[in-house]
Design goal:
globular
Length: 494
């Protein structure tokens, strides 16, 4: 592909505006959306999208790429919220069991979306930006291989290690039993989860956001009624209890996997999905960003897991309160992820094309958007915590503990949004050092010092919550270092 900046850039920009406004990714899944007659060939639309990323106005282009993913991830998050709402009818032990499993499930989704998924998206984006179309196509198959291997490892680890892991986190008696029932069915679908998320990451890296968004949205619309149906039963369908919630997730991802793979194989995605010889250099290109970013995801979720363990020292009621309160922390992730995947793509394409100053400007602009987005939500919840807590429980002790956590932690959501977006911008540039340092600092402060304060110094939930807040501020500070590090902002040499 020719580099932008020559005499035909204006023509490309006109095509780009139309492509991103009406069809920001090539092709549609049969039956999911209406087929547009005489659609422009996928390569032409890819080139138009690339031109907009390289030369278009930053904020409008960012929003066109980010909004479809953000909308459907919010819908998917609504499924998680609805599930917790349904499980709440099964009692406090069931809520505590879900609280034990939820950080581990989020670890898997964050590693597949924002960990190795970021490595896939970054590699594809830089290949597209540099005009290396064959590499971009081959990366799709390499991503599938990684998804199968890592997904199988998650299934094995969760089923074999679940009793020990959830027991170490404070699960006892009925709460532990609920956690295991939920976990075993949930993680039986780990391979489909990884395949869906890594294939979607490849599409987003090429600027193709509509199909991954559509698959997720349709799944969310199916899950909201399917989950209570399997939990409580209806007519001839028996109620499966908490196992039903795990089965619903596994069935959804199996269906989404089949739909997405069929679409990728159809040739309409803009990326040619086919069997190719495995190449070490392409795995390296994915893993040089994916592995450190996956470690960041591990550290982020390990922070929540260890804090969950510390809260478990206060008893089952406090554990249930923390579970429903910290679930709001996780809701910030889909919002930020939708924004940040667009940032990663835009930065990666510009780095691949050698436009360093523009890539850095995209990072700064996007980080301010992330700060404003999560900061406003955090402020509302800090002022009115019952808007969230009353969705899940009416137990006065649970509500009191949840209010303590939310009023202390949610004002720091602005710092989370700022640092999270910058971390993805650095990943798009192919560098992950400062985000890694930020994640290490966060776990040391929130989990390490939190365990010491609660387990050895007798501190309460308020002190533990304050440490979580401090950890978010420190995280944002270290991520900001990536913006002034000269090693990050330089041309890609892949």
């Amino acid at each position: 592909m020719a580099a932008c900046g020559d005499g035909n850039v204006k023509m490309e920009l006109k095509a780009a505006t139309a492509a991103l406004a009406l069809d920001s990714m090539p092709g549609e899944e049969d039956g999911a959306v209406e087929t547009i007659p005489e659609a422009k060939p996928a390569p032409a639309r890819n080139d138009a999208a690339r031109a907009a990323i390289l030369t278009g106005a930053i904020l409008p282009t960012l929003l066109r790429l980010a909004l479809p993913t953000m909308i459907v991830l919010v819908a998917q998050t609504a499924v998680n919220v609805a599930e917790a709402y349904y499980v709440g009818y099964l009692g406090t032990d069931a809520l505590a069991g879900v609280a034990l499993v939820f950080p581990v499930f989020m670890l898997m989704t964050m590693m597949s979306n924002g960990g190795l998924g970021s490595g896939v998206a970054s590699a594809v984006a830089r290949a597209v930006g540099g005009g290396r179309r064959q590499d971009a196509d081959a990366l799709v198959f390499h991503a599938l291989v990684l998804a199968i291997v890592v997904g199988a490892l998650f299934t094995f680890a969760a089923i074999k290690g679940g009793p020990v892991m959830y027991g170490m986190l404070g699960g006892r008696a009925e709460a532990l039993d609920a956690a295991l029932k939920y976990s075993n069915y949930l993680f039986a679908g780990a391979i489909p989860v990884w395949i869906v998320n890594l294939q979607a990451a490849a599409l987003r890296g090429a600027g193709n956001v509509k199909v991954p968004a559509t698959v997720t949205l349709v799944g969310a619309l199916v899950m909201i009624p399917a989950s209570p149906l399997l939990i409580f039963g209806l007519g001839p369908i028996p109620g499966l209890g908490i196992q039903g919630a795990g089965i619903a997730f596994a069935v959804y991802y199996c269906g989404a996997m089949l739909v997405l793979l069929r679409y990728m194989a159809s040739g309409r995605s803009g990326l040619a999905f086919k069997f190719v010889p495995l190449q070490r250099r392409l795995f390296v290109d994915i893993l040089k960003v994916g592995v450190p970013t996956a470690i960041n995801a591990i550290l982020t979720n390990l922070t929540v897991i260890l804090v969950t363990g510390a809260v478990g020292l206060f008893g089952t009621t406090a554990l249930a309160a923390y579970g429903i309160s910290s679930r709001l922390d996780y809701i910030m992730i889909p919002l930020l992820f939708g924004l940040s995947t667009a940032v990663l793509t835009m930065v990666g394409v510009n780095i691949g094309a050698g436009q360093i100053a523009r890539a850095k400007k995209i990072a700064w602009t996007s980080s301010v958007v992330g700060l404003a987005l999560t900061g406003s939500i955090g402020l509302v919840v800090a002022l009115f915590p019952m808007l969230w807590l009353h969705l899940f429980s009416s137990d006065p002790v649970v509500l009191a503990d949840g209010t303590t956590y939310l009023r202390i932690v949610t004002p720091a959501y602005a710092a989370l949004g700022f640092g999270f977006v910058i971390a993805f911008a650095a990943q798009g540039a192919g560098h992950v050092f400062w985000p890694f340092v930020a994640s290490v600092a966060r776990i040391v402060l929130a989990a390490g010092f939190g365990w010491i304060a609660v387990g050895y110094l007798g501190a309460g939930l308020a002190t533990l919550s304050a440490m979580v807040t401090a950890s978010l501020l420190v995280y944002a500070g270290f991520c900001a270092m990536a913006m002034i590090a000269g090693s990050v902002w330089r041309p890609d040499r892949t």
